[in-house]
Structure formats: C-alpha cells, structure tokens
C-alpha cells in the first residue's frame, strides 16, 4: 500500500503521525508513505531560518502536534522548557542557532513563541516519527522535500501518479493539505504590478511576509501597507526592528521606539481603517475552554426551521455568548456591588437581555455595543490624517490596557477571546449546512468571516504596543477608513475616502495578507492540475434564484473528508475553508481538538479502518 501526503506543514506531519499510530490496526501488511513539500518538515510557514522577531499568535501551551494522551507527547511550551529543545536546536545545521537558543530559554507557558522556534519543534516532531518508522520493518517513508509537486493524475483503479518535474510517483491513495495558496492575479493586482514595473516602484503581492524582498524600500521612501492583520505586524516588524531599531519598556505598559534611521515612513490602511484587535495575555490553562452558553448545538437545533437556522438567529446566539462573558468580566472588575452569579443566572433565563442590562444603570460607555466593536471609529469625526491618528491611538491604548488585564479579566478582549472557544459551535452550523445557501453566501462568507478575523485573529498585545510606539515616533501612520490606492504621477497614491483631498504619494505598496484559499483562483499546480484532470472541483452552492456560485472549499464528503467522486483522495486544512471554519490553526492539546480527531479519522480512512463516529469537524 502506497500513500502520498502532499504538504509537510503541521497537517502533513499530523497525518504521518496518525498513519503510523493506526497502521497496526489495519489489514495492510506494509505501507510506503511518500511525503512531499516545497520546503522541509514543518512546511513553509514554520521555517527555522526566519527573523526571530516574527512571533506566533497562539500562546505556547495551547499548541501541540501530538494526539491527546500520546506517549511522550510534548506541547510546544513543554518542549521549549525542556532540555530536549536545546539539544535539538544545537544539533541543527543553521546559522541562527544562537538566536534560537536565546529565544527558547525565555519561553514560558504563555509566551508567544518565535515562528522559527515552532519550525524547530516541527522538525523535532518529524524526527521522532522518522525514529519510529526506523523501528518498524513494515513502514517505509520516502521524503521529497524542497520539491514542487506540479501534476497529479488519476490512473487505473482510482490510484494516482504524483509528479515532480520528470519524476513520477505512483500512489494508491493521496491526501493533500497545501496551506496558503498562490493565486492567479486579480485584474487590479496585474495593473498595479505593471504600473510598478513601468515606473520603478516596489509592489509586493499577497504572500509570505517573511519571504518578501523589501531591499528596494529605502529610508527616504514612503510605503503603503494595505491590510492591518497579522501580515501587517510582520511587515512593520521587518521594516523597523528588522532594520536595527528597538523598543524599550517604559514600565507603564507603553513602549518607546528608538529608530535606527533606516526605516521608511509607513502608511497603513484597510477598508475598515482600524488594526485588528490585540490578543489578551492568556490566563487560561492549556486545556481550558469556556463552553458556549447560547450558541450550543442544542440551541442551534431549536432554532432550525426546515433544517436551517437564520443567520440573524445564529448571530444573536453568538452575540449573547460574547455579551454574557463581557458583563461577567466587567462586573467582576468594576462593579463589586453586582453579584456576578446572580447576573449570569438572570442573563441565561431572560428573554429581554437589553432590559436586564438596563436594570443595572451602567454608564453608556460600559454598555456592550456590537456595532461599535465592529466599527470602533463609527461616529468619530474624521477630517484629517493627523486627527485620525489621535482617534486610533486612543482606541488602541484602551484595547491594549484591556488585553493586558488578561483573557479572564479584560471585559472587551477577554470576551472576544470567546470567539476562539466558539469555533467548534460555528463549525457545527457550517459543516452541517444549517444556513440556507443564500445566508451562507450573502451573510456568512463575506462580511462575517472578515469580522471574525478582525475580532479574534489579531496579534499578541505587544504588537499593538509596538504600533502605538511607532505611531508616537511618526514612523507608522494609519489611514482613515475606506482606503483607496491607485497608480498615478509615477507613484502609488493613497487616501481615505473620509478626507479625500489629503493624498499620500509613495514608492512602495505592500499587500499585507496571505492569499484567500479559494479553489477556483488557486495557481498552485497541485490544485490546477487536479482541476484540469477532473479530480476536484469547488463545492457548488445553488442560491434560491437558481444561480450557482462556488464555495472556496474543494467539494468533499464531510463525513470522511474524501473528495467527491474520488474514493482514494482526501483533503483537509485550508483547501476546505468555507465548508469548515478556521482550518489553518495548529491543534490545541487537552481539549479533544477537532483537528486532531479529523487527522485520526482521515488516517483511518486511508488505511481502510472503519471510523465509527466521524468527526465532521465539531
Ligand atoms: C504568517 C503566519 C503565521 C501564523 N501563525 C499561526 C499561529 O501563531 N498559530 C496557529 O495556530 N496558526 C498560525 N498560522 C496558521 C498556519 O497556517 C497553521 O498553523 C499551519 O501552518 C497550517 O498547517 P497546514 O499543514 O494546513 O498548512 P501549511 O503549514 O501551510 O503547510 C502546507 C504545506 O504544503 C506545501 N505545498 C503547497 N503546495 C505544494 C506543492 N505544489 N508541492 C509541494 N508542496 C506544496 C507548502 O510548501 C507547505 O509547507 C499562521 C500562518 C501564517 C501564514
């Protein structure tokens, strides 16, 4: 039996682990696994050789590649704090060893680990698997690292040939998890790229922030960063600390930036005009989740009409869970006169939540306002770039202070943290197709997904402290909402629609985001060849008016994660985003993580072992 795994990122490694763990229970006498990646074990995101200042956005104790209960399992935090990590890093043939060792010695359970260290953890994990395979005469591993798979074809008996250049690898079954994609350029990107080429400007397309060539951006230049999520923080870090500047701690939860003089002036913006919310300092144990009180599967089921929950009912349940946490934290922190348990009981029982909150006579600014959370600058008079800086700084400072209180204390950031705990509840709605297709397309896939990223997928609070310090130093300026960018006068120019006459001209434009994982627009040859060869297609969605649109996900059977029509082909991870929810995280130990369960189920499927209660990612 030959199984191919394309992608040796965390999912590819989880698959390898689960194939090894499950092999003994299968009826197969021997197994050869072909593992392919353009990079090495750990994959492209988790390169060991990348700037040490680029950090993860999940606390160290919430990350593991091992299955719960697996022998000798170490989470990334346990690994970093053991001698095993130091010995392993010392054994690596890399020139940033000293930097890695200094960083690993500083890690505690709640640290945000440098991504390079997570890369070392992935490589160590892989080494453990290789050792296990060496001891097993019936499993062979053929590793194809630093190789680009450029074609996948189906041959006889529903088996496949995976091609790397001129070399073909026949496999009986295949699983792919390709992570971030390269996409076909949009018309806008094509024209901006042409403009940059014509006038000697720098244009950085969406992709991996640590790999982009920033060498043409000089200190006398202005640069636009479009997008204010995680990639924004990476680019800012590379253009500031990465150029010799440094931060000092003022001892009052603020930082001061000391410039090296090599930094360009950064104009950052987005449609919303506000950087992502910071992550709270974690106060949770590694396996601690707040369960849903309102968006429970049972409550969702109660709202079903003809098998569907309306988006509005779904959103109301989700909001109630956030508000429940918000007021619980707020009352504990600021209103000792209010009995939190009594509030919680009443909030769960009442049909009129607004009236209940009204009965506490809170000052207006303490009443939870969802619209304000989604649009923190709503109602603010924005008339110049300069006065906008002051609004953003005030908001950032408030959010940083809240985030520093901790994930079980800060009312705003602590309650938004709930959105991570609710992921499986959202997955339940999505993968069981409980939205109507119209609600899915018009209300969930567009706005809601983007809102979730803004609220819950930001960087650790220290990144927001850094942005604030860089704004104070005049190196970063945030453009107001509805940022527009065009090429004109041999420059890229940008402005906010709110103060249209203030135009900023720059020499470099950075698209600070990874490409959306959309099957139809992917330019990854694994996807394009499988589409061309009729192996995969996007999941179709038929709307009530008869129009059919494509989901971003590959069309798969959610019970097995098999590609529809291909019994021996499986996919998971970002290739299924849109059908599943947040498909790219590294699993969390001790919480029966759905990623770990899915990995086990798929491995069983590949080995023809029956799966009794399929995961369906929830
Ligand atoms: C900058 C950044 C920071 C992140 N930080 C965090 C974080 O802090 N915490 C967290 O949980 N998640 C984080 N993520 C999400 C991250 O994607 C996941 O943690 C994890 O890497 C997903 O694993 P994966 O195996 O599904 O995909 P990936 O890790 O992306 O691995 C996919 C692999 O497939 C390979 N591949 C693709 N196409 C081909 C081909 N044609 N031929 C050969 N190989 C191919 C790629 O080289 C890649 O190595 C981050 C992502 C990015 C981009």
TrEMBL record:
Origin: domain of life: Bacteria
Domain FAD-dependent urate hydroxylase HpyO/Asp monooxygenase CreE-like FAD/NAD(P)-binding span(s) in chain numbering: 5-180
Name of the protein in question: FAD-dependent urate hydroxylase HpyO/Asp monooxygenase CreE-like FAD/NAD(P)-binding domain-containing protein
Highest classification ranks of the organism: Bacteria, Bacillati, Bacillota, Bacilli, Lactobacillales
């Amino acid at each position: 039996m030959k199984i191919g795994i394309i992608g040796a990122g965390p999912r590819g490694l989880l698959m390898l682990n689960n194939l090894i763990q499950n092999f003994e229970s299968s009826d197969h006498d021997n197994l050869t696994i072909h593992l392919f990646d353009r990079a090495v074990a750990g994959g492209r995101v988790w390169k060991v050789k990348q700037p040490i200042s680029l950090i993860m956005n999940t606390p160290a104790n919430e990350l593991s590649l091992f299955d719960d209960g697996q022998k000798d399992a170490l989470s990334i935090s346990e690994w970093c704090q053991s001698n095993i990590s130091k010995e392993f890093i010392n054994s690596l043939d890399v020139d940033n060893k000293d930097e890695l060792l200094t960083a690993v010695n500083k890690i505690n359970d709640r640290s945000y680990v440098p991504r390079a260290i997570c890369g070392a953890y992935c490589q160590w994990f892989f080494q453990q698997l290789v050792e296990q395979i060496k001891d097993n005469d019936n499993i062979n591993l053929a590793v194809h690292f630093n190789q680009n798979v450029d074609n996948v074809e189906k041959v006889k008996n529903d088996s496949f040939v995976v091609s790397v250049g001129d070399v073909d690898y026949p496999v009986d079954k295949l699983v792919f998890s390709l992570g971030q994609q390269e996409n076909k350029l949009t018309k806008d990107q094509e024209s901006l790229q042409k403009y940059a080429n014509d006038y000697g400007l720098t244009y950085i397309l969406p992709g991996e922030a640590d790999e982009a060539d920033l060498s043409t951006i000089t200190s006398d230049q202005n640069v636009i960063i479009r997008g204010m999520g995680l990639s924004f923080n990476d680019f800012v870090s590379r253009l500031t600390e990465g150029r010799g500047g440094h931060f000092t701690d003022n001892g009052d939860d603020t930082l001061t930036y000391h410039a090296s003089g090599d930094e360009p002036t950064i104009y950052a913006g987005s449609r919303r005009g506000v950087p992502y919310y910071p992550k709270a300092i974690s106060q949770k144990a590694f396996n601690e989740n707040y369960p849903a009180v309102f968006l429970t599967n049972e409550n969702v089921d109660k709202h079903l009409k003809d098998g569907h929950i309306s988006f509005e009912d779904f959103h109301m349940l989700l909001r109630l869970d956030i508000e429940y946490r918000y007021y619980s934290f707020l009352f504990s922190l600021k209103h000792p006169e209010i009995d939190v348990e009594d509030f919680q009981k009443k909030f769960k029982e009442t049909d009129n939540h607004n009236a209940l909150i009204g009965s506490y006579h809170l000052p207006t600014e303490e009443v939870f306002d969802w619209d304000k959370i989604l649009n923190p600058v709503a109602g603010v008079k924005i008339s110049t770039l300069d006065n906008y800086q002051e609004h953003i700084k005030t908001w950032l400072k408030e959010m940083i202070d809240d985030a520093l209180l901790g994930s079980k204390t800060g009312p705003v950031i602590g309650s938004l943290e709930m959105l991570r705990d609710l992921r499986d509840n959202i997955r339940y709605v999505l993968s069981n197709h409980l939205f109507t297709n119209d609600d899915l397309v018009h209300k969930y896939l567009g706005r809601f997904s983007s809102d979730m990223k803004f609220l819950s997928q930001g960087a650790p609070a220290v990144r927001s402290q850094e942005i604030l310090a860089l704004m104070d130093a005049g190196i970063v300026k945030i453009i107001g909402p509805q940022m527009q960018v065009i090429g004109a006068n041999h420059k890229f120019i940008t402005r906010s629609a709110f103060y249209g006459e203030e135009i900023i001209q720059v020499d470099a434009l950075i698209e600070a985001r990874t490409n959306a994982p959309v099957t139809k627009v992917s330019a990854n040859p694994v996807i394009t060849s499988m589409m061309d060869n009729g192996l995969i297609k996007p999941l179709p969605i038929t709307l009530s008016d008869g129009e059919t649109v494509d989901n971003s996900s590959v069309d798969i059977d959610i019970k097995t994660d098999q590609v529809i029509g291909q019994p021996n082909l499986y996919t998971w991870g970002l290739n299924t985003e849109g059908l599943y929810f947040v498909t790219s995280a590294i699993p969390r130990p001790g919480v029966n993580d759905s990623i770990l369960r899915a990995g086990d189920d798929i491995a069983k499927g590949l080995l023809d072992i029956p799966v009794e209660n399929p995961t369906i990612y929830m």
